[in-house]
Amino acid sequence: MKYDYLIVGAGLYGAVFARQMMDRGKKVLVIDKREHIAGNVYTEKIEGINFHKYGAHIFHTNNTEVWNYVNRFAVFNRFTNSPVANYKGELYSLPFNMYTFNKMWGVTTPEQASAIIEEQKKEITGEPKNLEEQAISLVGRDIYEKLIKGYTEKQWGRDCKDLPAFIIKRLPVRLVFDNNYFNALYQGIPVGGYTKMVENMLKGAEVKLGVDYLEDKERYDSMAEKVVFTGAIDAYFGYSLGYLEYRSVRFENEIMDIPNFQGNAAVNYTDRETPWTRIIEHKWFEFGKDEQGNDLPKTIISREYSSEWKPGDEPYYPVNDEKNGKLYEKYKKLAQAEKNVIFGGRLGEYKYYDMDQVIAAALERCLKE
Ligand code: UDP
User: Fold this and answer.
1) Residues 230-286 pLDDT 10s
2) Is 219 an annotated catalytic residue?
3) For position 341, what pLDDT does the model report?
4) Is 141 considered catalytic here?
5) What is the 152 CA–ligand 1 centroid distance (Å)?
6) 62 vs 196, 241, 324, CA distance in Å?
7) pLDDT in tens, 139-185
8) CA of 50 to the centre of ligand 1 (A)
9) Nearest CA to ligand 1 atom 12
C-alpha cells in the first residue's frame, strides 16, 4: 500500500495526526472535501484582515504541552477574549464579573454582589437538572434572564430547560474586575492566521483538496493501511442508525468602509428578538493592524445566525443532550468494530471540543499507534 495513513479531514485533528506520524517517518495522505485546509479554523486574508471564515476561534488552554506544541507552528499574539453583551441596547461585560454586577445592580463591592447572587440562587434547591437551573444556581435569575436565556436559546434552538447543564459551565463567574472570558493560562491568536499555522503543521504531507472520501471510500481505503476519519461519525455509517443532531451556523459578512464598527472582536446579542447571536469584527483579533503594524482602514463584520443542521449544511456543534448521546453510543459501537479506522475530532467523536482539546486528543491517540 502506498500510504501508512489516509487522513480524512485537514482540520486540527487531522493536521496534528499527520504531523506526528510524519515525524515518525510514516507516509500520510491528507484529504478534505473542502477546497482548503484548516477545517473550521480556516482564515483568509481580506482587506488585510485575517478573516475567520467559520466563526471566531480564540486559542486558549491550560495545557502546557499543547501550548508548546502549537507554538512550534505559529507565533501567538496577546489577544484576550473579552466579549461584550448587548441586551436591548444595554451593554454588559462578559464573562460574569464585578463589571457585569455593577452594571446590573449598581453594586460596587464583591460582598454586595455576592449577597444578591446568593439570594437569587435560593430558587434552586438540589442538583441542577438542566441549563436553566444550572445558570440560576451560578448567577441568579437577573443575569440568567438578560445575559443567558435568549442567547442560549438562539444558539441551541432549544429551551434552556431541555439543555444539559454542562454547556454553561464553560462560562466563568467571578467576584473580581476581570473581563477575560477564558480561565486559561495561555491564550492568543496565531499571527498571520490559523491557515498558516495548519499549513506549517502539514509541511511535507501530501494533501488533496476538494475530494469526498465517502463518495469513493473503497478506492481511498485501498490506498492506506489505516484511515483517520474526522468527519461526522453518522455520515460515515450512511446515517444507518438515524441522524445525530448538530447546530449549524450561517454568517452574513460585510466589508465596511469605516475603521471601527463595534470596538471589540465579539459582541453577543443576548436578547431573544435580535435574530443573530453575535457580531464578530475580525480585525480586533489582531488589534486592527496589519503585519507591519499599520492601522487598517476598513473593517469586516460577521453576523452569526445559529440554525439546526440539515443534510448539506456544515455541522458545527454536536448537540450533546441525552437523546443524541444515546445514538452516539450506538455509532461508537459500530466505530469500534470498524477495523483500521480511527475516529477523531469534534465530528468524529461527536464532542463539543475546544481547539486545545482536539489537539490533546490527537496527540494522545498518536501515542497509542
Ligand atoms: N452563553 C450565554 N451568554 C453569552 C455567551 C455564552 O448564555 O453571552 C452560554 C450559552 O449557553 C452558550 C455557552 O455559554 O451556548 C457557550 O458559549 P461560547 O460563546 O463560549 O461558545 P462558542 O460558540 O464560542 O463555542
Assistant:
1) 999 999 999 999 999 999 999 999 999 999 999 999 999 999 999 999 999 999 999
2) no
3) 98
4) no
5) 7
6) 23, 37, 29
7) 999 999 999 999 999 999 999 999 988 888 777 889 999 999 998 99
8) 23
9) 152
> Is 344:13 a contact under the CB 8 Å cutoff?
yes
The gap between the terminal CA atoms of the chain, to the nearest Å, is 18
Residue with cell 481505503: 221
Query: DSSP letter string over 16-46?
Result: HHHHHHHHTT--EEEEESSSSSSGGG-EEEE
Q: For the stretch 79-108, what's the b/e string if a residue is b when 16 or more beta carbons lie within 10 angstroms of its beta carbon?
A: bbbbbbbbbeeeebbbbbbbbbbbebbebe
Q: Is the distance from the beta carbon of residue 135 to the nearest atom of ligand 1 less than 6 Å?
A: no
The model's pTM is 0.94
Please report which residue ranges of the chain form alpha helices under DSSP H. 12-23, 64-70, 98-105, 110-121, 131-139, 141-143, 150-156, 194-201, 217-221, 233-236, 322-337, 345-348, 355-368
Nearest-CA neighbor of 28 among 208, 197, 184? 208
346 part of the active site = no
Nearest to 348, CA basis, from 211, 234, 244, 216: 234
- For residue 247, how far is its CA from the centre of ligand 1 (angstroms)? 13
Asked if residues 346 and 315 have their Cβ atoms less than 8 Å apart, the reply is: no
Three cell numbers, residue 18: 499527520
Mutate to test the pocket of ligand 1, among 138, 155, 181, 319 (most ligand atoms within 8 A of CB): 155
Residue 229 φ then ψ, to 5° = -105, 120
What is the C-alpha separation between 193 and 335, in angstroms, rounded? 34
Q: What is the pLDDT of residue 208?
A: 98
Contact 279, 251 (CB under 8 A): no
pLDDT confidence of residue 168: 87
Of the candidates 181, 192, 193, 201, the residue with the CA atom closest to the CA atom of residue 70: 201
Count Cα atoms within 13 angstroms, Cβ side, for 316: 21
Which residues of the chain are under the pLDDT cut of 70? none
Active-site residue, 278 included: yes
pLDDT at position 321 is 83
Residue 322: predicted pLDDT: 87
